Amino acid sequence: MMEDPSSKEEITRVLKVLEALKQASHELQTLPSTNLTESNSPAIKALLELETESDTILSKDPYLSTLSQHLTKLKSLVDTLQKCCDHGLRSFLTRRVLIQSISRVAGSIGSEIQAWIDRKSIESLIKGLNEPLQTEEDDLVSLLSQFEDRVSQGFNRELQDLVLKSKIFCLLERVLCNPNCSKKVREQCAFVVSALIRFNKDVFAGQVLMGPLIHALVSMASWGSMKVLCSLIKSIKSPLVDEIESNGEIPKIISFLDYKDLHWRVVAMDCILEIGYFGRKEAIEAMLREGLIKKLMELQRSELGEDLIDMGMFDDEKERGKGEKKFSESHPFASCVARFAVQLEVGEGLRQRERRAFKQEILKRVREACVSDAEAATVIAEVLWGSSP
User: Fold this and answer.
1) Which of 54, 130, 290, 331 has a 20 to 30 Å separation from 359 between CA atoms?
2) Considering the domain 1-117 in this protein, what is its CATH number?
3) CB-based contacts of 40: which residues, under 8 Å, 6+ apart?
């Protein structure tokens, strides 16, 4: 997909002017009382230098008419302030009022500029998402990354309105679920979805739960998609785990523990721990049916595992925290059976009687999976020590 070079060049020119205006208005807003009356103020100089060029550019875009009005008003306020040089009380009060007005107008300018930038970036992103196979991969990934960064700056109602009106979530989901699109683009779409959930979970979580996105994340079978799934579980909690379980995705997630790639197994472990914390009875039962405890025992006795209790790291709460943090990188599967049991014990998905029943089931499966009585005694002690009786 090729964009009109002249149009692209004009947008770049406008963007350059707007960024300079935004920087100048930001300085006026954050430091309104500093050197505003001096003609050599950097913010004032930028404003004056851009006045003629900005008027020419802003008049061509109807979306920038309000910005042009704000700019004219700001220029008038600054001119008035610079002429107000008396040292009397009345002049002092006038300057204070003008400075406050400048700060408010500067804030409005910054908001109008950001709204224009958001609108243009979303328009460009929509074009790319509508024709993902005809768009250069790096260009589309860059647009997605920029949008993710913008959304990650925090909630903004105007931005949310743009996102909802553009139906960009549906486009992200469509590309993410399209196996013909590159994995790099699909992963970046997943990162944007995760950012939108953090942006406003109440608005976008429902779209995650109702659509095919969860299945797409699991079936994509990439490290990035699993990182996003972990993030979504943390944000949406039990309802998302319910959806994972009802879609039959848990066996696939458990199977990732068998992958040779270490990063894969670590992120799969993280995902399993999150499911353990937020999962209800059906999800925990599904994990146990897939032989999770046996797999965790194999990982724990590997060179990447460790029995923290044997190293004196379960002596008290403080030392336990230090020990797990210290060994998390070099021993990512240290005491992973006990860690899973603790997630069930302190998590949000189970009733108290279900917690007790699952702990007994875990202890039973530990005994069946251990290769020696000594190993069984160590792991059982960790499970009992790490959770309440």
Assistant:
1) 331
2) 1.20.120
3) none
- 156 phi and psi angles, rounded to 5 deg: -145, 120
Identify whether the C-beta of residue 336 lies closer than 8 Å to the C-beta of residue 300.
Answer: yes
Is 0.85 topped by the overall pTM? no
DSSP state of 310: G
> Cα–Cα distance between 47 and 102 in angstroms, integer?
13
CA nearest neighbour of 162 among 195, 204, 120: 120
**Segments in 40-182 forming alpha helices (H):** 42-58, 65-83, 89-130, 137-151, 157-166, 168-176
pLDDT, tens digit, for every residue of 186-241?
999 999 999 999 999 999 999 999 989 999 999 998 999 999 999 999 999 999 99
- The 10s digit of each residue's pLDDT in 256-306 is 999 988 989 999 999 999 999 999 999 999 999 999 999 999 999 988 887
- Cβ contact 230:276 at 8 Å: no
Cα atoms in the 13 Å half-sphere on the side-chain side of 211: 18
Number of H helices, E strands in the chain: 20, 0
List, by residue range, all CATH 1.20.120 domains of the chain: 1-117
Per the CB < 8 A criterion, the answer to whether 135 and 180 are in contact is: no
Contact 28, 106 (CB under 8 A): yes
